[in-house]
Amino acid sequence: MPLLQRAGRLDQRAFDAVAAARLTGFEYVLPRLSKAADHSLLWIGIAGGLAVTRQPRLRRAAMRGVFALGLASPIANLAGKQMFRRGRPLIELSGLPTSIGRGTLIPSARVRWRLPTSPSFPSGHSAAAAAFAGALAMEAPKSVAVPVAAAAAGVAFSRVYTGAHYPGDVLAGLALGAVAAATTRMVWPTRPAPAAGVWSMPSEAVAGVSPDGAGVVVVINQDAGGGDVSRTLRSELPAAEIVDAGEDLGKTLRDAADRATVLGVCGGDGTINAGAEVAVERNVPLLVIPGGTLNHFSRAIGLETVKDAIEAYRSGGVLRVDVACAGERLFLNTASFGAYTELVDMRTRLEGRLGKWPALAVSAVRVLRHTEPTEVNIEGRRLRVWFAFLGNCRYGSYGVAPTWRRHLADGVVDVRLIGAKRHISKARAVAALLVGHLHLMPDYKAWRTTGLRVEATEGSLRFACDGEVRSTDEPIIITKQRAGLAVFGPARLAEPSRRPVPEPDTDQALGPRSDTF
């Protein structure tokens, strides 16, 4: 108790110091800033503004910030306040002295809000501010994170300055918000830096790089915002040739590659995949221009916008990365079979009417209700599989659906699957897929190899490469072409590396021939 009493007296003295302070200019700003943060409206408004920028990094930052808000606010306002039920500070009223037994009163001129009746500890405004600003800083650039952090600090101080809370309430709220922000990383890992350790060969395309884009032929998928991309390219690279993908994407790409020193491709992962196949075939460097919804490969090499791609081209640095092949089909990110292929098929049928994300949600529900495990032979072992993903290079994230890589030229295939031999329910399998950390789930297998053979036990096998689904009656042989594709990357990645490319890091102890499989 003496310790709590000592802390209470210290808290009161700190409050008295703030109450007695007269900060010129802040008498107007801080009360309004405090009110703007009521019900987290300030942070939701900032998140909405970032979401409409169409910049993936800012959208991720906004989503993470709102997620942290959703964690911190209920804990502070529902659990914390009801548990401690501390009284609010006193406000100066007309005719009363500015200091009474409980300390200095907050001048009534600072109060621009109705006096709150809820308990004081902890500060919900401060918890929300710290949660949003802390989570946003994990994804956003400093030019955005620093002003938001300053606003959060201003809101926290305003809660004391306007008499809504004691300093101890605010400090507790800030600590709670910081924990909420950190917790988001457990559920949703932050996106790492662009893949490191990639082979760098800057001299390969220097001769083909022109400031105005001469020699560049860009094939654009018009479904991926082609109009905006075309305008930006014509402005930044006026000598570049821009071609519509048309109905026969493969033919268009091959014709473009035959007359290009640099082949540019704009679209989602499926379109980039097709461009990479032609670039490898024709031995020309590939300029990746992100234009789809997810753009996994372009983000892996650090390109999130059209301007990022243009800067990478002008840097003259070409990165050598691995490509994987499923039979004759190339993939840069992942190949998959099992329930995921059904989800892709259904989403494709529905997205014209519903839009991509609603179609994905509806498809997930339908697949969960109707799908059955896929029976396959993997390296001679017969298995029943719910979900299976094969990654091009080692992925660092846990879970059956890999999300990021540290290296793009390591020579391995990362295999992850959920089997069904232990009668895992569909609901449990889907929950495991969404939550991740599947190394704790029964019948989850993960290993790395340099090649793999997969075939259906009966009939054809539905197989997806970077989201493009096909059926085959033949066995699928997964192979690697190490450092087989040249792509333009950011200048910071394109400096010559003196480190050797690592040897393939396979883990056959967990492979299909082991007793654990």
TrEMBL record:
The keyword Phosphoprotein does not apply. InterPro entries: ATP-NAD_kinase_N, Diacylglycerol_kinase_cat_dom, NAD/diacylglycerol_kinase_sf, PAP2/HPO, PAP2/HPO_sf. Keywords: Cell membrane, Hydrolase, Membrane, Transmembrane, Transmembrane helix. GO terms for molecular function: hydrolase activity; kinase activity. Pfam families: DAGK_cat, PAP2. Residues 493-517 are annotated as: Disordered. Residues 211-330 form the DAGKc domain. The keyword Cell membrane applies. GO terms for cellular component: plasma membrane. It is a multi-pass membrane protein. SUPFAM superfamilies: Acid phosphatase/Vanadium-dependent haloperoxidase, NAD kinase/diacylglycerol kinase-like. Its main location: membrane. This is Undecaprenyl-diphosphatase. The lineage of its organism: Bacteria, Bacillati, Actinomycetota, Actinomycetes, Streptosporangiales.
